[in-house]
TrEMBL record:
Residues in Transposase DDE domain copies: 5-100
Protein's recorded name: Transposase DDE domain-containing protein
Pfam family, one: DDE_Tnp_1_4
Organism name: Streptomyces zagrosensis
InterPro entries for the chain: Tnp_DDE_dom (IPR025668)
Length: 102
């Protein structure tokens, strides 16, 4: 991970075999989200509902759930597969935070 741009870290794809991640296909999805500005747009749209002392951005939580579904997840707890790869997905909210009604 070089630097953070938007909601997700900047990730490079290399064929060296070092720093291998199991959800490498998601790098394309994260790149698309970042390039289109979807992460910042959703975060801005949901900003009025963000609690003053919230740790996690509601837009990032929503995008993480969408990525988990795109990677084969079928429930909110499947964001755990993203949490296992912080270099790719950055900080991911805990299962209770993701499941908490807003």
């Amino acid at each position: 991970m070089k630097k953070r741009i938007g909601s997700y870290p900047h990730v490079r794809v290399e064929g060296s075999g070092r720093g291998v991640v199991s959800q490498a296909g998601a790098v394309l999805l994260v790149g698309t989200v970042r390039k289109t500005g979807l992460d910042t747009a959703i975060s801005a749209a949901l900003a009025p509902w963000r609690k003053p002392r919230a740790v996690h951005d509601p837009g990032k939580i929503l995008l993480d759930v969408a990525l988990a579904v795109a990677l084969g997840g079928d429930c909110l707890a499947d964001v755990g597969m993203l949490r296992a790869e912080p270099a790719v997905f950055g900080p991911v909210a805990s299962d209770p935070t993701v499941s908490r009604p807003r």
